[in-house]
Each structure stands twice: as C-alpha cells, then as structure tokens.
C-alpha cells in the first residue's frame, strides 16, 4: 500500500485553512497519485505561541511532521520576492533534528480570499441560494489581484447572494461560508489567469516531480 503524502500548511489565520482545497487540487492536477493527508499548523492554542517566523516554522515541523511544507503569507504591500526572502532567511535560523522537507511558497497578491472569487455560481451555492437572480456585481478574474480587501468583498458577496434581509443577513456566518466556497469548488483552473496562482501552480508541479 502506497504511503500517503503528509503535508503541513503554516499560515497566519484560521480562514487560511480553506487553502487545503486548492493545494489538494494542485497536487492532483500535476499528477500526484498518492493519498494526501493535509495538516494545518494551528499554533494559536499553544501556551506561548511563537511570534517570529523562524520559530513558527520550527514549532510547526515539530508538532506537525510532514514530507512537504506549504508556507502561506499574503504579499499585501510586499512583493512575492520579498516574502520569499523573509521565509528563506527564517529557515536558515531553524534548528531541527530531522531533514527540512521541501517548502512551497503560497503567496497570493493581497489576500488568499481573492482566490475564492473564481465562480459566481459557487458563491450563490455557498450562500444557500443557488437560484438567486440578484445582480452581485461580481468582479472579473482580471480584477482579483487588484481588489483592496478581498476578504470583505467575499463576505459582502455572500450576504448579497443569500438575499436574506435584516437580522438574518447580519447573522449569516460568513466565516463558515468562506470554507464552504472552497469545499464546493472542484475546478480552480480559472485562477491560472492570475500571476500569483500560476507561480504557485508551477512550484507545486516541480515538487510533484520530486515526490513521484
């Protein structure tokens, strides 16, 4: 029986765990045949959560051992190259007994929530109103990397797509629905039009070649 691939995703927030659906899809797209066991390095509940990036990586590898490490950092006001430099510098300060697993950099422009805006129909389904007709003013794919606050845009679209009113709309658990968008999406290929996603896809492609 083939040993499954265990990977760990290290990120800053709980909503970033939605990224596993994208990562799983990319691994399959590029030909990984093994079963995949994803882990999210949830360091928030530790008695003393690490604050520095090198400490986060070190603790994540100790608590969530893996054959592949994804490190997610939103680029926001920094370039992708700058974020990669920060990660590389952090890894040089790490002291672990095991060999360092391969690292893939997950660096969306601004925020990863922009990658959940690839399909208007999925937004409507996630909001529980798949047959809704209200105009959502849905952004074009070419606009996604320029959105100033993708997370808030997704939240607002979910509220609008629900077509609920008043208190029911205010009480809508948009954080939970964020995960639902990723769960419902079975094809992320439209995102290949985005520069940051293409770079992630190429990095995963190269890693899969090494893991086969």
**Shape by Cα distribution:** globular
Superfamily at the CATH H level of the largest domain? Answer: Response regulator
Structural class: alpha/beta
Give the CATH architecture of the largest domain: 3-Layer(aba) Sandwich
Question: How would you sum up this structure in a few lines?
Answer:
This protein has helices at 19-29, 53-63, 80-91, 120-126, 150-162, 166-170, 174-184, 195-211, and strands at 5-10, 36-40, 68-72, 103-106.
Structure description:
The structure is a single chain. The protein has 212 residues and is α/β, with parallel strands linked by helices. It folds into two domains: 5-109 and 194-211, 3-Layer(aba) Sandwich (Rossmann fold), CATH 3.40.50.2300; 113-184, no CATH class. 41% of the residues lie in helices and 9% in strands. It is built from eight helices and four strands, in the order E-H-E-H-E-H-E-H-H-H-H-H. It starts with a strand and ends with a helix.
Key features of this structure:
alpha/beta; Rossmann fold; four-stranded parallel β-sheet; 212 residues; globular
Describe the SSE topology.
Blueprint: E1 5-10, H1 19-29, E2 36-40, H2 53-63, E3 68-72, H3 80-91, E4 103-106, H4 120-126, H5 150-162, H6 166-170, H7 174-184, H8 195-211
Parallel strand pairs: 1-2, 1-3, 3-4
């Amino acid at each position: 029986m083939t040993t499954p691939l265990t990977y760990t995703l290290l990120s800053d927030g709980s909503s970033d765990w939605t990224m596993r659906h994208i990562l799983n899809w990319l691994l399959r797209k590029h030909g990984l045949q093994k079963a995949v066991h994803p882990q999210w390095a949830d360091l928030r509940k530790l008695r003393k959560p690490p604050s520095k990036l090198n400490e986060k990586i070190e603790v994540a590898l100790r608590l969530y051992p893996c054959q592949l490490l994804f490190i997610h950092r939103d680029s926001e006001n920094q370039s992708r190259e700058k974020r990669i430099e920060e990660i590389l510098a952090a890894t040089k300060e790490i002291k672990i007994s095991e060999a360092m697993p391969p690292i893939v950099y997950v660096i969306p422009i601004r925020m990863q929530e922009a990658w959940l805006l690839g399909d208007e129909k999925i937004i409507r389904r996630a909001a529980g109103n798949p047959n809704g007709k209200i105009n959502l003013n849905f952004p074009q794919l070419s606009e996604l990397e320029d959105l100033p606050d993708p997370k808030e845009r997704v939240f607002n679209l979910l509220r609008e797509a629900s077509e609920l009113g008043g208190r029911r709309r205010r009480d809508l658990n948009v954080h939970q629905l964020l995960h639902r968008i990723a769960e419902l999406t079975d094809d992320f290929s439209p995102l290949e039009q985005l520069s940051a996603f293409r770079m992630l896809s190429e990095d995963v492609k190269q890693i899969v070649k090494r893991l086969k």
